Amino acid sequence: MKSFILLxxxxxxxxxxxxxxxxxxxxxxxxxxxxxxxxxxxxxxxDFAEKLSxxxxxxxxxxxxxxxxxxxxxxxGYSQIPxxxxxxxxxxxxxxxxxxxxxxxxxxxx
Length: 110
Fold this sequence. Notes:
- The chain has four helices and two strands.
- The protein is mainly alpha-helical.
- It folds into two domains: 2-47; 53-101, no CATH class.
């Protein structure tokens, strides 16, 4: 009886090992295919990019965010836009239209 149970355990163990090797081989093949072609990445990014959009609507946007720091943002003046806009508003200018982002485009890291 003990040898029969041991035989069954060995067979089950062999099947588990074979299944694990097969799963690993399939995953490795998919990984190698992705590294060579970037097919999955391009499909994901294409589907995600279709959801990104913006529209120009009247008035100032309440959800707009300008960069606060970084050498490129300082050099190009992007981090100074809120101050520039405030100075223009003091002089009588106003924002008549501004971009509104789609929900996917407005996702911000952090």
